[in-house]
Design brief:
Elements lengths: L8 H14 L17 H9 L7 H8 L3 H7 L1 H9 L7 E4 L8 E5 L5 E5 L6 E4 H18 L4 H23 L3 H6 L17 H16 L2 H8 E4 L2 E4 L6 E3 L2 H16 L4 H7 L3 E8 L10 E7 L6 E8 L17 H12 L8 E6 L5 E8 L13 H23 L2 H8 L4 H29 L10
Antiparallel strand pairs: 1-4, 2-3, 5-6, 7-8, 8-9, 9-10, 10-12, 11-12
Length: about 450
């Protein structure tokens, strides 16, 4: 995936220039659905077969709310669409779901608040432009959701793509270690504005920072649990949060924890030993992830004021794998964790993987992380035009940094070039794909009305 060590810098640049000749940047500009394009509804229904049947209607209901909500839940659809397009062949570790809502704030192990990618369920190697296209299309859909016109939609997509191109060219001039150590402290995010942001925008950023700092294990415990007969337990909120039975809790709390512990660095394993499991619940999360097997474990250290809340989230094959090379990992939880460690500037100290057993005794790959560790995504509808533009520029830089860590940054920078031709191509593509997403969303709404697709709304 990375640059072969035998290639000299000039040779690596030549790789990018050769890719530019093979797949000119302007060839990336047009979205045209292929004649044999798979039916998006069939793709979603096929994906649902692997999920918890009673929760699948909630997923469809959440996706039906808006085209952007549909986009968030339909990475499988876009993966097939991207595979039908011209490809540069310049491979990186892809996020696989790099839409704007999957960028946000979280705490580093040093307790610094960082801005970074925060979802890696679909991570897999592939052409760098696939992530860029997903980010650009999400910029257009965000603008449309906020009621902004076509000129603003194009400007939003262009901001994100230009930030990516300029950042990648900057990383190409840096040493390998400097690239690896690069990170975006949230206090520095205002530097991505072309002009000094208005005080209202800075105030919204400050509120986001304050909100992130409140989202800790202690806050999760206070929000999700109560004390019953002297013992702390999760508060049930069916179907979104349901405690498991004693036998299932034992399986998740002991066997899965033991397997998970083996994947941790030794000092983190020692830290984990200082906690014990007191309760387990199944939790519904996100939009695209609804229906996957996700559990939360409440662990306790010294006493009930010393909590750790871990999330065990099912990991299945990446939606990208069907269109690229097979995963090098036999365990999809390990795939997610490896991709996250490569792409993120800093990673949750409790990140690891295991296998969790469901109520039927079936084993499912999972990855593990803290439920909340100052993880926070800003409300895109409340940021305003300047705020969303700032967020997109920061996301473009962040995505370039993630790709520069795993791919050949010199080759990609050479392909991108110094001119605006790359953003000139990706912007109209994003506009066209946003139109496609609106059509696909309308198709889902119609399928729900016709009872082809089960859906529960408002949950």
């Amino acid at each position: 995936m990375g640059a072969p060590t035998k290639l000299q810098p000039d040779d690596r640049v030549a790789v990018g220039m050769a890719a530019r000749k093979q797949v000119p940047r302007q060839s990336l500009a047009e979205w045209a659905p292929p004649a044999d394009r798979p039916d998006p509804i069939d793709q979603l229904l096929g994906q649902a077969e692997q999920r918890i049947p009673t929760l699948v209607p909630i997923r469809h209901g959440r996706m039906s709310v808006s085209p952007f909500a549909f986009f968030r839940g339909s990475a499988i659809v876009m993966a097939a669409d991207l595979a039908s397009q011209p490809s540069t062949g310049l491979t990186v570790q892809l996020c696989g779901d790099a839409h704007i809502a999957n960028f946000g704030l979280f705490a580093s192990p040093e307790r610094t608040l960082l801005f970074d990618l925060n979802d890696f369920d679909e991570t897999h190697p592939g052409p760098f432009e696939w992530d860029v296209k997903r980010l650009a299309a999400s910029a257009v859909l965000t603008a449309r959701s906020n009621g902004w016109g076509a000129s603003v939609q194009r400007a939003m997509a262009r901001s994100a793509v230009r930030a990516y191109r300029e950042a990648m060219r900057g990383f190409a001039e840096m040493s390998t270690l400097d690239v690896w150590y690069s990170r975006l402290d949230v206090s520095e995010i205002a530097r991505f504005a072309e002009t000094l942001p208005p005080e209202t925008v800075l105030a919204r950023v400050e509120r986001s920072i304050a909100g992130a700092k409140r989202r800790t294990n202690l806050q999760a415990m206070e929000k999700l649990t109560i004390v019953v007969d002297g013992e702390r337990r999760f508060v049930e909120d069916p179907p979104l949060l349901e405690r498991t039975g004693p036998e299932q809790a034992e399986l998740l709390g002991q066997e899965a924890i033991a397997r998970y512990k083996e994947t941790l660095v030794s000092d983190r394993a020692t830290l984990l030993e200082k906690f014990h499991v007191v309760d387990v619940a199944r939790k519904v999360v996100g939009v695209g992830s609804v229906g996957t097997r996700c559990y939360v474990l409440l662990l306790q250290g010294v006493d009930e004021s010393d909590p750790l809340v871990l999330q065990f989230k099912e990991a299945t094959a990446s939606v990208l794998e069907a269109h690229t090379a097979p995963s090098q990992f036999d365990h999809h939880g390990a795939r997610v964790v490896a991709g996250q460690r490569v792409m993120q500037a800093a990673t949750d100290i409790f990140i690891g993987w295991t296998s969790a057993t469901d109520a039927l005794g079936l084993v499912h790959d999972s990855y593990v992380r803290q439920l909340r560790d100052m993880k926070f995504s800003p409300d895109l509808s409340a940021l305003g035009l300047k705020g969303v533009d700032l967020l997109l520029r920061a996301a473009g830089w962040t995505l370039a940094r993630a790709h520069a860590r795993s791919g050949d940054r010199l080759a990609i920078a050479a392909y991108l070039g110094r001119s605006t031709r790359f953003e000139d191509a990706i912007t109209p593509w994003a506009m066209g794909y946003a139109d496609q997403t609106e059509d696909d969303h309308a198709g889902l709404v119609h399928a729900i009305r016709m009872a082809r697709v089960p859906a529960i709304t408002g949950v």
